[in-house]
Structure formats: structure tokens, C-alpha cells
Design a protein that fits this description.
The chain is mainly beta. The protein contains no helices and 16 strands.
Length: 231
């Protein structure tokens, strides 16, 4: 997909053959379990089917998009390896979304369902722990980035200097790190540390191993591995 020229912000001709179809500012990719490729193209999430056709499935709702001359907008995509559900981690809106329908719809903005985040900023030392222990859509987030789903359907995402988790009941918790102003703690000489002792510096992305369900965290100049039994 792409022909070297930018599409318009409203994307009236986004659907059709992927080959030669214009892009604006692609920033994220994710593979679907059916072989589809999901492309985060600035304000549109687009799906390229194995047949070579492309369709828009969701539009990110940001009031600045239609008046922006700077297409530098970073967000992250991931797919549930079992259900095939797509998730979008959007730093700008401080929310995690999932499209209600993955096959395309005319109501692209209405196709976004909030999985986590009210849009409010989670501040250090928040007395309500930014919603931990409650429903994820009612929690405040710092700045969600990398996102991943394991084989059990647990959703993990980077949020500031923490990794937060949403379980199968939609309850959010802090899985790793701290939201206070504590300095990062380096790994010990044997390169291992109890998960409760880890203080992250600047995590940005996540990945889950399909082999053993381990979670990998990219944190500044190191990659951390957390096994399924949280070690």
C-alpha cells in the first residue's frame, strides 16, 4: 500500500485495492490471525485483507486531526492471538480502544469502544491509585504506549513508568513499576530481580512470546523478560 503521495485527512478513497492506495502517515502495524495486516495510518486504522483489498475500520477521534499540518502522531496496535480482537493504545487521548467491528463500517468514529482510560491524566501519588482495582474504562492513565495481549486474554500496556494490566473482567491493575517519582532501579549483577522490586525508567513497548507466554518490556536500553509466573 502507498504510492509516495499523501492521502487527504478525510480519506474519501481509502477503501479498495491496497496496492497504490495513498497513505498519510503510517505509524503502527499488527498482524491479524487470518493473515490481515492492520495499519495505523494517522487518524485511520486500516485493514489489508489477504485478498489485497483494504478497508478503514476505525477513525481516531482527536479534535486537532482535521486542522493539523504535522502528521506526527504515535500510537500502538496489537491483536489478541486467540480471539483476533484488535486493540489501539492512543497516547494522545490517554485511552485504549478496540474496534467493535473489524470488517469495516460507515460510522468509523462510533466504531471505537473504550477498553481503558477516561482521558484524564493519572498523576503521581494519586490517592485513588488512578483507578487500580476498578473498571478499566473508569481509570485515569498517564500516557499509554506499547500494548500486548497474552494467550489468556490479559491485556498489558505501557503507561508512563508502569506496565498496567486489564483482566478478563475488565479490571485494571498495575502489573509492574511505580507511578511515583522513585528513581529507576537497575538490574542486579545476575540480571534478575523480583518483579515487585522493579522500577522502570522509560518503557515504550511490549511483546508477548507465543511460545511460553512471557512478557517482554522495552525499557530505555534494556529488554526485560517477565515469565508467566511473574518472575
Amino acid at each position: 500500500m502507498g504510492n509516495g503521495r499523501r492521502r487527504s485527512i478525510s480519506c474519501p478513497s481509502c477503501n479498495g485495492q491496497a496496492q497504490g492506495n495513498k497513505l498519510l502517515a503510517p505509524v503502527a502495524l499488527a498482524w491479524g490471525i487470518d493473515g490481515s495486516l492492520y495499519v495505523g495510518d494517522f487518524n485511520f486504522i486500516r485493514r489489508i485483507y489477504p485478498s489485497g483489498n483494504v478497508t478503514s475500520i476505525m477513525e481516531l477521534r482527536n479534535k486537532d486531526f482535521r486542522h493539523s499540518n504535522n502528521p506526527a502522531h504515535r500510537y500502538y496496535l496489537t491483536v489478541d492471538p486467540v480471539s483476533g480482537q484488535l486493540y489501539v493504545s492512543d497516547t494522545n487521548s490517554r485511552r485504549i480502544y478496540r474496534p467493535k467491528i473489524l470488517s469495516g463500517t460507515k460510522e468509523l468514529q462510533a466504531n471505537a469502544e473504550v477498553v481503558a482510560g477516561t482521558g484524564e491524566h493519572c498523576l503521581p501519588f494519586d490517592e485513588n491509585h488512578c483507578g487500580d482495582g476498578g473498571k478499566a474504562p473508569e481509570a485515569s492513565l498517564t500516557g499509554p504506549k506499547g500494548v500486548a495481549v497474552d494467550k489468556n486474554g490479559l491485556l498489558y500496556f505501557v503507561d508512563g513508568t508502569t506496565i498496567r494490566k486489564v483482566d478478563g473482567n475488565g479490571i485494571i491493575s498495575t502489573f509492574l513499576g511505580s507511578n511515583d517519582l522513585t528513581s529507576a532501579r537497575p538490574l542486579t549483577c545476575d540480571n534478575s530481580m523480583d518483579i515487585n522490586q522493579v522500577i522502570l525508567e522509560w518503557p515504550t513497548d511490549l511483546a508477548v512470546s507465543p511460545m511460553d507466554n512471557s512478557l517482554y518490556v522495552l525499557d530505555n536500553n534494556v529488554v526485560l523478560r517477565i515469565t508467566e509466573n511473574a518472575k
